[in-house]
Amino acid sequence: MKTILIQLDTDPLPSTFDRVVAVDADVDHLFSYGGVTPEQVEPLVHGAMFTRGPKDLKHTAIFIGGSNVAAGEQLLAKVQKVFFGPVRVSVLMDSNGSNTTAAAAVLSARKHLTLSGCEAVILAGTGPVGQRAAQILASEGARVRVASRSQARAAQTCDAIRAVVPSAQLVPVAAGNAAETRTACEGATLVIAAGTAGVELLSVETRAQLPALKVAIDLNAVPPAGIAGVEVFDKGTDRGGVACYGAIGVGGLKMKIHKGAIRQLFESNDAVLDTAAIYQLGLDLV
Amino acid sequence: MKTILIQLDTDPLPSTFDRVVAVDADVDHLFSYGGVTPEQVEPLVHGAMFTRGPKDLKHTAIFIGGSNVAAGEQLLAKVQKVFFGPVRVSVLMDSNGSNTTAAAAVLSARKHLTLSGCEAVILAGTGPVGQRAAQILASEGARVRVASRSQARAAQTCDAIRAVVPSAQLVPVAAGNAAETRTACEGATLVIAAGTAGVELLSVETRAQLPALKVAIDLNAVPPAGIAGVEVFDKGTDRGGVACYGAIGVGGLKMKIHKGAIRQLFESNDAVLDTAAIYQLGLDLV
Amino acid sequence: MKTILIQLDTDPLPSTFDRVVAVDADVDHLFSYGGVTPEQVEPLVHGAMFTRGPKDLKHTAIFIGGSNVAAGEQLLAKVQKVFFGPVRVSVLMDSNGSNTTAAAAVLSARKHLTLSGCEAVILAGTGPVGQRAAQILASEGARVRVASRSQARAAQTCDAIRAVVPSAQLVPVAAGNAAETRTACEGATLVIAAGTAGVELLSVETRAQLPALKVAIDLNAVPPAGIAGVEVFDKGTDRGGVACYGAIGVGGLKMKIHKGAIRQLFESNDAVLDTAAIYQLGLDLV
To answer: Which residue among A56, C49, C64, C93 is least crowded, i.e. fewest CB within 10 A of its CB?
Structure first.
């Protein structure tokens, strides 16, 4: 029986990136929909639920993507509401690559650090990738500082993470200027920058004042770098005693996790591949 | 040569249901279009007509679907107008599953009854599935009462069926309330309910007053049932001497007919699979 | 590794014609987008560039189509702007079949004439197919008269061709009525009509006054013919000493070139199949 992946994308034109990855993860048939809203989800999911018998349902699955992570989360909630009982198919949500990128970033850090108990800072920690990286680190026992220009928003993000990881050790910190950023990063062994493309979050000068730093990961692919001095192709590159990763350096592992997640969709008919499940899958891969 | 099915769907997003069935009927490539209007049909059909040689044309076919059956009929008419002479491809119209569902319903009844000469009632007989079930029963020689809240509309439906099946024995009947419904069904051995989801057309009390009834088929999948007491999974289930079928009970056969119809598209380049052809195909399958 | 063709079509519904040809050229997966504007191109192309490694990039390619050739050229320019360095995929632009049709028309003429030094007329030479046929003939050393109702527009077209083929021998000529058309065609051995469907550009009477004519090619598929007396299926048919080709007579070769061009896309990751490249490919095929 052929595998079918139903791609629900919240952008008007469904992502070619996600389509190529699906093909390379051996999906036989890809049904791609763009501009999908929660109101349109029901018949699309019914068509997945009511066409193949119980034993064959695992050969159909749903992928939710698009550049807007919040919109993707709404689709995921709606999709799960349409299912009833065992009549369901597996679902992967990875809008804007948020889950696979966060998992790959943390797994890259894990090559150099013991995560449990380590001091970590997520710059732009309230964005979709930052929040997910913070959640994963917290689930591994790291002490995570969630940094944002607004401490209030950082605190909201910490609350949201605690709802998923009750044992999380989180501190919301302000990092709206160089002095705040330095204080936010003081004593941290890991810094992950998950900000908007082309915005420098950590300057060369501030970095020079962080002697404890061991791993710096910048997920921004467009110059200037989010962490000054980190190159986009860096992949564990030693720069003055700091292991550095750039967006493309993390990208190879992200891609493996993305493909692995799509393959995992077809192993059962009831998987919901969220942040934790995707990280677990990454752990199994590395 | 690869088989290609061009799916023209009148809904904005082309049906995943129809796409999965096409894959499971071994279509190699599926070109899916949503929100298709008659004005857009010509170039889409020309692309099917003018790309493969005469001997290979049978490897390309057209499927017309969507929730609006009248809109699907308009597309079918337009598609046939674009063809000229032998330069054509096969077409299947099954908007809202209307043809395959009607065929499966009648074939289910046929397991229990001799259709020729039997007294049959179609509740909500003016809707797309109801009208098609009535047409098929009439073509088998049944005496069919087409029931509707409005007798005038029922009469229109009877006229439409007679245009296709000149020998049809049809009676338009009003069934706007319990008393009328009881009169409409009196003496009938077969009742098929083809109404809107969630509307009860035949109550427990009325049913109790129909001793001649042998087969009750309810095509409504959403509770409450169109025929009180029929369960959605019923598949010939004996309930007080009446063989009962629910929507899912009929669904397995509907699915076989649907897949069979798609396979048949690729056996020639000039098939037009309409109500009669789809029923004939179902007869061959059972 | 599976081949992927990304079809960017400027019409609302992506062409079924181009999709069938892609399938018949053995493309494994076709990602089809309709109504594509230059503003939407960047993420679509990034998804092609950033998903497969350098050695595998040649298994992904882009096809640009649609009925509006100018809109297709804008997409092609935008696509090439998104690439950087060796991170790119091959692209074919054939909006409205313009490049493959022009190449097939010239290659048909070449069976009967030495193109270098021959006197050729392109009626409706300012349209997309006409301009491309003129360019190809000029690149082969023919002396090409570009005919149009407006001599000014013909002159503009000649300038545009000279920008691509500096050695081109071109003469803009007016052909707004029978007398002008006769003068325009006097002494020519080749006439190609590339006008709007259903418009006669060369009458029987005028043709009778062109004793030098050896090859007449009419690319119009809808009656009346663009060149009176040429039949749509003509394929080198001798009509009073003139080898005649109609739209379908040229169509077989056009189709071979179209398929060959798609196959060529997957031989490297940096081809840009424009008018000259597509003609060269046609030369290799015949």
So the answer is: A56
**C-alpha span between C271 and C92 (Å, rounded):** 8
Bridge partners, A121 (sequence order): A145, A191
Q: Which two tokens stand for residue C273?
A: 């199949």
Distance (Å) from the alpha carbon of C30 to chain B's nearest alpha carbon: 9
CA B39 to chain C, closest CA, distance in angstroms equals: 12
* Helix axis angle, B275-285 to B128-139, nearest 10°: 60
Q: How many residue contacts between A and C have a Cβ separation below 8 Å?
A: 48
Distances (CA, A) of B146 to B112, B122, B133, B194, C76: 21, 5, 10, 11, 59
Task: Quote the ipTM score.
Answer: 0.91
- The enclosing H or E element of B42 equals helix B41-49
Whether the pLDDT of residue A43 is over 90: the answer is yes
CB contact under 8 A, A12 and C60: no
CA dist., res. B242 & res. B234, Å (int): 11
A177 contacts: CB under 8 Å, gap ≥ 6: none
Would the pTM count as exceeding 0.80? yes
The strand pair at C4-9 and C60-65 is best described as parallel
pLDDT beneath 70, residues of chain B: none
- Which of 79-138 (A) contact C at CB < 8 A? none
C37 touching A (Cβ < 8 Å): no
> Does B13 contact A46 at a Cβ distance shorter than 8 Å?
no
Contact residues, chain C, for B82 at CB < 8 Å: none
Closest CA to A91 of A137, A132, A57: A57
CA distance linking residue C23 with residue B3, whole number of Å: 9
d(CA A3, CA A265): 10
Q: Is the pLDDT of residue A221 over 90?
A: no
Nearest to B3 by CA among B73, B57, B67, B50: B57
Query: How wide is the angle at C-alpha C123 spanned by C-alphas C77 and C231, nearest 5°?
Result: 110
- What is the torsional sign of CA B82, B86, B90, B95? positive
According to DSSP, the residues that pair with B86 across neighbouring strands are: none
pLDDT along chain C (286 residues), means of 10: 98 97 98 98 95 96 94 96 94 95 98 98 95 97 97 96 95 95 97 90 94 96 89 95 95 97 98 96 95
Instruction: Take residue A31 and report the two structure tokens written for it.
Output: 């049904």
